[in-house]
Amino acid sequence: MTAQPGSKKINFPPVDEQLAYLKKGAAEVIPEADLKAKLENSAKTGTPLRAYLGVDPTAPDIHLGHTVVLRKLKHFQDLGHTAIFLIGDFSAMIGDPTGQSETRPPLTREQVNANAKTYLEQVFKLLNPEKTEVRYNSEWLDKLSSYDVVRLCGHYRLARMLEREDFRSRLANNHPISVHELLYPLLTAYDAVALKSDVEIGATEQKFNLLVHRDIQREYGVPSEVALTMPILVGLDGERKMSKSLGNYVGITEAPQEMFGKLMSISDEQMWLYMELLTDRLPVEIARLRQQVSEGAAHPMEVKIGLAQEIIAGFHGGAAATRAADEFRQVFQKRGAPSDVPEKKLKAGPRPLHALLTETGLAPSRSEADRLIKQGAVEIDGVRVDDIKHEVNLTQQKEILLRAGKKKFLRLVAE
Known about the structure:
By secondary structure, the protein is of the alpha/beta class. About 45% of the residues lie in helices and about 15% in strands.
C-alpha cells in the first residue's frame, strides 16, 4: 500500500499555478514565502515536496469536516508531490489535548488499530492509494528510548508549552493537566523529524502543534516545514463546527440520498464555503459561478444541486450521485414521491388526520402532528392539508399517499 517517491524527474505546473491551487481555502500558510521557495526548488530539481497529514484514529468513521484537510493533501498529490498519510497509532493512545477541557481517556492499541483500518478504507476515496505513502508513527516513536524522550523534551520550554490556549484555560480554571499531554506536541513533532517533511497540513485548531513541529525540526537539524492550516468546516446548522455529537454532520459512508438531502439543506451563502473546501474547483471557477448567480444567470438551487452531486460522486461514484440528484428533483421540485415509499396497511374507516400521523409514526405525538398540519407540512395525494380537524376516510381498494414534512412519505392501504 505504501508507494515511495521514485527517482524520475517530474515536470510540475508553473509555481504560481501551484501556489494558487494549494492556497485555495487555506486559513494560513506559515510562512508563505517558504512554500513558494520550496515549490521553486522543487520545479528546478524535479523533486516532489514531501507533504503530510497526521491523523489520530480516535473514532472509526469520518465526515465531510474531516475531509477538508484530507482534500488539501490530495491537492499536493494532484500536482505531483508526495502525499504522506500518517496514522498516529502511537499518538492516538495519548490523545491530542487540542481544544480539550479535560484529560482524554486513553485508547488501547487494539481500539486504535481497528479505527485505523476503517480510516484507510475511507481515506482512499479521495487519495490515490497507489501514490500515497502510508506511515504509522509507532515506526519511530515505539523505538525511542528514555534517553531519547528526555533529549526531545530538552528542546522545548515549559513556559512556551503553557502558552497554548487550552492549557492556559485549564490552568486558570484549576482543571488538571496530565504530564503526558505536554508530551503530545513534542512526540508528534518527532514525526516531522522522522519524515523529513517539507509541508504539514492541519486544522486551524492544530496551529500550535504545527509550530512546535517546525521548531523541533530545526533543533534536530532538519529544515523547517511549512505549516498549512485549513478552516474548521461549519456544520449543517450554519453556526457550529461539523460534529457527530451535534448532529450537524454529513458522513461520507451515508447513503447518497441521505447525503444529498443534508447538503441541500445548507444556505445559499454557505454553499460557497463548501464548494471551496469540499471540491477541487479552482478559485477562478468558483468566483465566476458566484458572479453568475448574483447576476441571475444561474439559479442558486441548480448550483447547489451540482455541488451536492459533485461531493457525493467523490465518495459513491457518478452514477449514484446522479440518481440521488434525480430523486431530489422528483421529490422536492416536482412534489412527487420517491420510488421506494414504504407501505403500511391499516383498518378501513375514518379517523382524524392527526391520529393517522401518530398511528403511522409520521409524528411522535398529537402536539407534533398538529404543528405539522398547521405549518402546511402535511399532504394527502399531493394536496396540502392545514386543518387540524381534517378527517381521513380509508376505504378498501384505495391507496393514499401521505406526506409529513420534507422527507417522510408513507403509502397507506386499507385492509
